[in-house]
Amino acid sequence: MKVLAYLLIVPAATTWAADEAVANAHAGISADQLNFFEKNIRPVLVEHCYKCHSTESEKVKGGLTLDTKAAMVLGGESGHAGVTPGNLTESSIYEALTWTNDDMQMPPKNKLPADVIANFKKWIEMGAPDPREQAVSQAAGGKRQINMDEGRKHWSFQKPVKHDLPAVKTEGWARTDVDTFVLAGLEKAGLRPVKDADRATLIRRIAYDLTGLPPTPDEVKAFLADTSTDAVKRVVDMYLDSRRFGERWGRHWLDIARYGESSGKEVNVLYPHAWRYRDYVIESFNSDKPYDQFLKEQLAGDLMKFNNKHDQAEKIVATGFLAIGSKGHNNRDRRQFAMDLVDEQIDATSQAMLGLTLACARCHDHKFDPVTQRDYYALAGIFLSSETLFGTYSQLQNQNSSTLIELDRGADMVSALASISPAEYEKLKKLHADASTTAENIREQVRGMTAADRTKQVAASFLRIRSSFDRAESVRADLDLFYSDGTPRYLAMGVLDRERPVNSPILVRGDIKQPSDVVPRGLVEVLCAKGEPLNISQGSGRLDLAWFIASKDNPLTARVMANRVWMKLMGSGIVTTPDNFGIMGQKPTHPELLDHLALSFMENDWSVKQLIRSIMLSRVYQMGSTYSEQNFAVDPENKWHWRMSQRRLDAEVIRDAMLFVGGGLNLYPVDGSPVARAGEGREGILNMARELQSKPYNFRSVYLPIVRDQIPEFMSVFDFPDASLVTSERDNTNVPSQSLFLMNNAQSISAADAFAKRIGEHPGTSQEKLTYAYQLAFGRAPTVDELTAIKNFWSRFPDQAVEGKQTKEAKDYAQKAAISAFCQSLFASAEFRYLN
């Protein structure tokens, strides 16, 4: 096979240690950026650009080469920079891709799809991270060879082992094994832990971490009064047993599962039944479903044994994990759509469950990890042998439609829709028949035209045909939601095995037009013992894959989840690249502690609640966030955990807390989703957009509709993640737009008004009302200085609000406005938005 310059090429005898050295050369590029480049940029360059613009082109056109970072930045004979990191207007390649300049259009024959161009825009804006500096200079050495024996020596590909507790000098500080491992690291670094958090701060931290809501004043009062040694354990267990727990921790997994209720990309098609997967996740965390079982069900629930019809339906719904990802429904090539779908499933599965970027091996052997194209296409065969059912009907811009999975009528499931009468059902049947007839009549008219008339009328007729067809399909979609007696059907997104499994050929450069050797369905070699059978001979192989991933013998699965739980509770992961445990990921700061957590997680039947409890009961978790100049000088990032890191609340938590303290949060679980009632097609998207803008939902944010590219403003302004990507760790920004939102947005003002009304109705003196406000918002009473400041505000604000008017109405208005402004200031404060 011809060796191409775009490959990362090193001498054949290179060991894995040398590969790590290459990886370290690109340490300035984050794992997420590398993943984005390898998945979205390099394959496009290889497929569409390198033929004319690489060092191996027979004739380099325009003097422009694009197979190294330096050449790409330099540009070609025009003198313009090919890529200027962070600057679109000075990046001639982006201008060429968009076809805005008639004299410079790339590729010259066919403009790239809108989502591909959008990826290049995003890449340039993020600084054009590019790991290809070594590509040419090392080209003489030959193709990089992957040595699996060496590859298995990477720390994360070795099974976790039990470690003896380290010796520590400080006696009496450690309460648990977790504390001992952390204390050993602190002592080695010459650091001393700060004092424990005060009890009011601690219960606020526990409540938010476990439920996503603040503690009530009564809960704080009871905790402060409980001086027993089991007080913390009791309050932790109280919140773990709350239904609010599943809503909070289920949202963490939904980030990882790239949960969304539409396809995103260039044609945003609604997924009205995605909400069933959301509810499955919430219920799984509330019931403390063993994590290994949780993973198995999401990969192969339809193939697993079940106890009853309801259990069977739940397991099928779990496979929605594989169906809810973003898709390019406008792709006219169904083979390409199928391979892109499989690629998205491999990417989501590998990052979410294994912390690996296996999808980077689609076009070539993985650039950094010991993962081959053979591994990728062995997995691809598993997913190609499974039918993904996402439930969208055919329309003008949806070239790839699908049915849904109908769950057993006796499964006793929740429905998003109310029943209709049998008469209404018959009306739907007639509407569908009429719309279908209209479409066929137009087709007949076109068939009967002369060639000249057809040429004149084809455009308008085509649109009319499509409109009628779309209408017929839309009504059919509504019809399919109900039985003939008008009761709603139980429908779900998910996957089922195809009748006949297939194996996938390796696609050269990931191109469906260049199939090579066919590989049998199978598992990832580096994660299997040497000599262990990899191939799968029966069925799709999803069940085998599920057991392989969720096995105690898999070195990654328990570690990846234990690291994520630690990260959510402590502010940063032991491995700070939670979705990448490969060569380009960061090494663990506390490897022995990570092994300890992973092993205890598995030994306790994969109980997520028990893992959380073990961390929360440690002294490390219960430390204060006090600043220490001496410690900060040594460890400014707090990677050794000498204090509890301050953490900003997530978008959903800020919104829910504002509604909660104002007394307006509806804690009743939502049945279904507004998306399920919006309709399908473009009409459904428009309906959903209007509803998102106009309807003030008051239920928990985890139940808000997540339409890709139309995320509610409250969520997006506070760093809600891209719903198309696996996200374990959200961005955490502190920007002016957030403060402006809290000051001016109608939802923020409405929440403040509700809070003010609740305070105004609280019995007692003005000082008692204000104290109650502090207890609701911060879980504590105001200090003397804060009370003085509030009184000064109270004496000035009313007069300014009424502008000298002394009528009773004016004074009443001023009083309400003062309380509302005061409440809004509490919402906007750092203390409300952060955990100490």
Automatic annotation (TrEMBL):
Q: Where is the DUF1549 domain?
A: 178-386
Which InterPro entries does the entry mention?
Answer: Cyt_c_Planctomycete-type (IPR011429), DUF1549 (IPR011444), DUF1553 (IPR022655)
Cytochrome C Planctomycete-type domain mapped to chain residues: 49-109
| Keyword list, A-Z | Signal
Question: Which ranges carry the DUF1553 domain?
Answer: 541-793
Extract the signal peptide range: 1-17
Q: What is this protein called?
A: Cytochrome c domain-containing protein
